[in-house]
Amino acid sequence: MDSILSLQNISKTFSEKPGEDLHVLEHINLEIGHGEFFVLLGPSGSGKSTILRIMSGLEKSYSGTMQWENGITQTDMSFVFQQFALLPWLTVYENAEMGLIMRKDLTADMRRVIVMKELRELGLERFAHAHPHELSGGMRQRTGIARAIATNPKIIFLDEPFSEVDSFTARELRKDLLAIWERRKMTIVMVTHLIEEAIELADRIAILTPRPGKIEKTITNPLPRPRNIRSPESYKLEDEMYAIIEP
Ligand SMILES: Nc1ncnc2c1ncn2[C@@H]1O[C@H](COP(=O)(O)OP(=O)(O)O)[C@@H](O)[C@H]1O
Ligand SMILES: [Mg+2]
Question: 6, 205, 224, 234 - which has most CB atoms within 10 Å?
Answer without folding.
Answer: 205
